[in-house]
Fold Rhodanese-like domain-containing protein.
Amino acid sequence: MSSASERPLGIDELLERVRVDLDRVEAADAFEAAQAGEALLVDIRYAALRDRDGLIPGALVVERNELEWRLDPQGSHRAPEATSHDLRVVVICNEGYASSLAAVSLRQLGLRRATDLVGGFQAWRAAGLPVMT
């Protein structure tokens, strides 16, 4: 429990703290891991961004507000891809901020290998990696 005299944590500091334990990946590494079947890419961007910018082929699309329910291997609403707590999940948002917080939430559910994509979908696209429109 925090005391009233403690300074509130800002989002930049929170991101810095949560990213310490994440083995964040670059776009090319995420692509290679997905191609090799070693990682599940999970796109949490909202529909308007997916419609505007396209999709990563093979990525599982899960809205952010459903993420924990769809990726919990023990959950009754899990996606078929959510096979175990050892699954390497790479969460992708638009620019790589919300995905860090989402990856930490998945780790709290026991998905110890959950991480996120540095720079998000925009970094993926900038790297010239496949995108479906």
Notes: The mean pLDDT is 95. Residues 45 and 93 are 5 Å apart (CA to CA).
